[in-house]
Amino acid sequence: MSTMTTKNSAFTILLVDDREENLVSLEQILEAENRIFIKATSGNEALRLILRNENIGLIMLDVQMPDMDGFEVAHLLKANPKTKDISIIFVTAINKDEQNVLKGFEEGAVDYLPKPLDINVTRAKVNVFEKLYFYQHELRKAVTDKEKINAQLERFMYVVAHDLRSPLSGAMGLLYLMAEDERVKESSDLTEYMNLATGAMSHLSDMITSILDYTRQTEMQQTIEAVDVHELVKLTIHSLFAPPHIRIEIDGKLPVIVCNKLKLQQVFQNLLTNAIKYNDKPEGRIQVGGTDKGEFYEFYVKDNGPGIAKRDTDRIFKLFEVVETAVVNGKSSGIGLNILKLLVEEQGGKVWVDSVLGEGSCFFFEWRQ
């Protein structure tokens, strides 16, 4: 006998006992508004129902049954990858001696309830397993959502990097031709500027190649290495060619951490690029630093730019959101800070900003060490 359901919001409990009156009694004890009960009077019937219903969150399993006892049912469930994670509570009239308890746990039980049942204890234990079931469900959903976001991010990165490669190759070719011009060779200033430009182009080309390589790899294949963050930030600053009126400084010595270098570089490059692009002061100042917080290192990028209104400090990290500062100072896609947020949250950290309108902003982000 059974009651089948496909409702994911309810907590489905399978009751297994060879005596009908025990099933009725147990259902009455556990009955609640958000619960659905499936009942089986034998081990074989229980196995059939479990395989047909993916929403079972808990099995209340009688030990003493003819043909197939509770220990055998539990053993078969734990041997099947599809059913091995379902919680099982043994309901038994057997003396709760050490030998039987150990056998039950070896076969996959997570708890025991002795007959005759104590109503309050039975309800309390099932309530705990119900909460655990929904916590696990939310955790699995969060993991699935994270995987979807990561996949979308990687596809976006691939498209952008792929589309940038062709015009960049053309620009590099033109620079190399210009470098061979006699007028350039005769001027030491022009030669120096040309070398800086070709160096920046080469660095950008390497970054695009790295992004393309990254998007072709799975999460497990991505390179994790010891990264000298101080040198990484110095190279990033050098490649951005800030205008002469903007000074960028590193506060103290940044650490060496084990992580994916490309992802961390993307975060710093995004924050530094924005700090340079939107700075509206005659003398722009940008500071980069951080603090060791144990499991995470808390980095910051601080500027004396236009600042951000308090109402916008959370909104700027949402996809395609553009605040007034970005509109006034130049076009913004509203994508960069959202990608930054995804990269930081992928590490288990968080990103936030402290800002005073007209005085500047300080962006903070946590990166796992």
Structural description of this entry:
There is one protein chain. The protein is α/β, with parallel strands linked by helices and 369 residues long. It has three domains: 11-117, Rossmann fold (3-Layer(aba) Sandwich), CATH 3.40.50; 142-222, Helix Hairpins; 223-369, Histidine kinase-like ATPase, C-terminal domain (Heat Shock Protein 90, 2-Layer Sandwich). It has eleven helices and twelve strands. The strands form three sheets. It has a five-stranded parallel sheet with strand order 2-1-3-4-5, sandwiched between helices. Strand 11 (351-356) and strand 12 form a beta hairpin. Helix 2 runs parallel beside helix 3 (70-79). The longest helix has 61 residues, at 119-179. Keywords: Kinase, Phosphoprotein, Transferase. It is an enzyme of class 2 (transferase). The modification 4-aspartylphosphate is found at residue 62. It holds the Pfam family Response_reg. It catalyses: ATP + protein L-histidine = ADP + protein N-phospho-L-histidine.
Offer a few descriptive terms.
CheY-like_superfamily; five-stranded mixed β-sheet; 12 strands; 369 residues; Rossmann fold; Helix Hairpins; 20% strand; His_kinase_dom; 11 helices; five-stranded parallel β-sheet; phosphoprotein; single chain; alpha/beta; Heat Shock Protein 90; EC 2.7.13.3; 3 domains
- Strand-residue proportion: 15-25%
Strand arrangement, major sheet: 2-1-3-4-5
The fourth-level CATH homologous superfamily of the largest domain is Histidine kinase-like ATPase, C-terminal domain
Q: How many separate helices?
A: 11
* Helix content percent band: 40-55%
Main beta-sheet strand count, sense and barrel state: 5 strands, parallel
The rounded Rg comes to 31 Å
Q: What's the pLDDT, averaged over the residues?
A: 81
Tally of strands: 12
Protein name: histidine kinase
GO molecular function: kinase activity
Organism: Chitinophaga defluvii
Keywords: Kinase, Phosphoprotein, Transferase
